[in-house]
Specification:
Order of helices and strands: HHHHHEHEHEHEEHEEHEEE
Structural class: alpha/beta
CATH superfamily of the largest domain: Vaccinia Virus protein VP39
Shape: globular
Strand content: 15-25%
Mean pLDDT: 94
Number of strands: 10
Number of helices: 10
Radius of gyration: 20 Å
Bound molecules: S-adenosylmethionine
Number of domains: 2
Distance between the termini: 48 Å
CATH architecture of the largest domain: 3-Layer(aba) Sandwich
Helix content: 40-55%
CATH class of the largest domain: Alpha Beta
Strand order of the largest sheet: 6-2-1-7-8-10-9
Length: 271
């Protein structure tokens, strides 16, 4: 299928005008693939046809947004990254808190999908701190643009496949199993605040010790990646950390902002 550019622009502008959703944040090739999925579903050939479909069936917007925001995720996705986070990064964060006599820990999971990422962070913290967790005021912000995913996160009930990478002792300790469903316990749930937030249009969260933004930037244009990384720089406290996905990294324009803490795991530290 070939795409006529004026039609593509027309569609992108329509979505922005009518739903305030700025598709231009995503790489064009990625966006065209996602639009293509919807065109095939409707058995139509052009973006102009799809504009008419959106006019006639406004509920199609939900399907489209569902297709654009790929929500694939898992608990402890990339186990080595979580291992480094748990064994190396967290002890440094906690030592810094001790030094500054602060008990406030603020973490942002940006593009958190259905909550597996912020809950994995919470599980690491809870397991490391034990009963000492009560000495801290911990907030893990889980933000996403997708309501459906956020509601799944708020419900905190997962199938066994989401937990494939999770250590068995963690599952046994912090989940309640009911048949093939696993409900996360309230003590973990209470550490995570799910918030609808569009990182392109809205102000970033502030005063953060850590930002996780994993498997999100790959879908964005270079310009958006650069902008997002500058926002993270502004959001993260001195000596705080940024953890990106396995195939993501700093853009050349952002090289000076962070030090490479562990390049294999894409972990960066603010100077
Ligand atoms: C592939 S998931 C990544 C989930 C998780 N971080 C992980 O690594 O497993 C990407 C998420 O980014 C979210 N997303 C995409 N664009 C966004 C935006 N502009 N603002 C907030 N979230 C966005 C999508 O809705 C989706 O849930």
């Amino acid at each position: 299928m070939t795409f006529a550019e004026p039609d593509f622009d027309l569609l992108v502008r329509k979505i922005l005008r009518e739903r305030g959703f700025d598709c231009r944040q995503y790489r064009e090739s990625y966006l065209k693939r996602r639009f293509g999925v919807r065109l095939r579903a409707w058995k139509i050939a052009t973006f102009t046809d799809y504009v008419s479909i959106l006019d006639q069936h406004p509920e199609e917007y939900n399907k489209l947004f569902d297709d654009i925001t790929i929500n694939v995720t898992q608990f402890f996705r990339d186990i080595t990254a979580y291992d480094t986070f748990d064994k190396t990064v967290l002890p440094l964060v906690l030592a810094a808190k001790k030094k500054t006599q602060s008990n406030i820990i603020r973490i942002w999971s940006c593009g958190c999908s259905s909550g597996e990422e912020p809950y994995s962070i919470a599980l690491c913290l809870a397991d490391r701190l034990g009963t000492k967790i009560n000495n801290y005021s911990i907030t893990i912000f889980g933000s996403d643009i997708d309501d459906l995913s956020l509601n799944r996160g708020r419900a905190g009930i997962y199938g066994a496949a989401s937990l494939e990478n999770a250590p068995a002792d963690i599952v046994a300790k912090y989940f309640v199993q009911d048949g093939n469903k696993f409900a996360i316990k309230d003590e973990i749930k209470s550490l995570v605040k799910f918030i609808k937030h569009d990182f392109i249009r809205e102000e970033p969260f502030k005063n953060l010790d850590l930002v996780f933004c994993r498997n999100v930037m790959i879908y964005l244009t270079r310009e958006m990646q650069t902008r997002l990384l500058v926002n993270f720089y502004k959001s993260i406290n001195a000596k705080g950390f940024l953890i990106l996905g396995k195939v993501e990294g700093l853009m050349s324009a952002n090289e000076g902002l962070f030090e490479r803490f562990n390049i294999t795991e894409r972990i960066y530290q603010k100077g």
